[in-house]
Amino acid sequence: MNFLKYFFVALCISAASAAAAPDCAGIDAGTKAYNGGDFERAIDEWRTCADNGTPDADLLYNLGNAYFRSGKIGFAIFYYRSALRLRPGDDDIQHNLKFAQAMTRDKVDEDEEENPILSGLFKLHHALSLKAQLITLLAIFWLIALIGIASKVLIGERAKNICTGAIFALTAIFCVIGSSAAYKIFVLEKEICGVVTAADADVTSAPSDKSQTLNTLSEGTTFEVISEQGNYAEIRLGEKIKGFVKLSEVGIVK
Questions:
Q1: Based on the number of CB atoms within 10 Å of its own CB, is 53 exposed (0-12), middle (13-18) or buried (19 or more)?
Q2: Under a CB-based contact definition with an 8 Å cutoff, are residues 235 and 216 in contact?
Q3: How many other C-beta atoms lie within 10 A of the C-beta of residue 74?
Q4: Fewer beta carbons below 10 Å: N end or C end of the chain?
Q5: What does CATH list as the number for 2-103?
Q6: Which one of 29-33, 49-53, 54-58 scores highest in mean pLDDT?
Q7: Which of 80-84, 108-112, 165-169 shows the lowest per-residue confidence on average (mean pLDDT)?
Q8: Could you tell me the fold of the domain covering 193-253?
């Protein structure tokens, strides 16, 4: 119950953050419509501002909330991801993104057997946000430094051995968390992802209406974008799915 309460409180107050968005006449109109429960009007106003102005994390985040309240999970995930790319590590954006993603599941994953080892590593990787990982790394760094100083002033072989062991253990933890954080930064900076915004999207063998359909992705599914070819995007999802989807059925997060 606390989880749901926190989420909907975040949605209700999100419109207040629109004040930080770029100067656009539709910002105030969208905020008023959102607070009045007219989410479609809010979407129209805010999308006009987003399409015609400089990308802004608050504006994109609010658009994600408006789409979520309208029941359009695919667009909600797309705008949350777009906001997160501009503001990596934002707890509110990450929280709402995870909530929206939990409400959709790609059809192609239903029959796949989950690897418990990979699942465990995945959970550890996402246990802390990027911001929390960076704070943890800083804390571990200073702790290692303090223990190193203590090892120089302490008298006794046993005390020095304990300090050496503690430094070794903390260094190992530092390397693991650092690797996870570095990968998250790399993904945020380099990886181009897409989200299915239509009810579903066919993955075809070639960028053509006449090509063979290989898979069907459900609304809200996130995938890696390899390239764009005309009206199609070449995509990859895991190791099993690779092909082309229509750009009109997906949103590309850049």
A1: middle
A2: no
A3: 26
A4: N
A5: 1.25.40.10
A6: 29-33
A7: 108-112
A8: SH3 type barrels. (2.30.30)
Average pLDDT over residues 36-51: 94
For 156, left (φ over 0), alpha (ψ -120 to 50), or beta?
A: left
226 contacts 249 by C-beta, under 8 angstroms: no
Residue 241's φ and ψ, nearest 5 degrees, are -115, 125
**Cα dist from 63 to 48, 55, 83, 105, 121, whole Å:** 11, 12, 9, 22, 32
Tokens 């004040």 correspond to what residue? 19
Model confidence over 178-216: pLDDT tens digits? 988 887 777 666 678 899 999 999 999 999 989 999 999
Q: Where are the domains of the chain?
A: 2-103, 116-190, 193-253
Residue 151 · residue 164 · CB < 8 Å? yes
User: Which pLDDT belongs to residue 4?
Assistant: 44
Cα dist from 129 to 82, 160, 180, 253, whole Å? 17, 34, 10, 20
φ/ψ (deg, to 5) at 216: -130, 125
To which residue do tokens 């990027």 refer? Answer: 130
Ranges 67-71, 137-141, 186-190: which has the least confidence: 186-190
Tokens 């359909």 correspond to: 213
CB distance 56 to 21 below 8 Å: yes
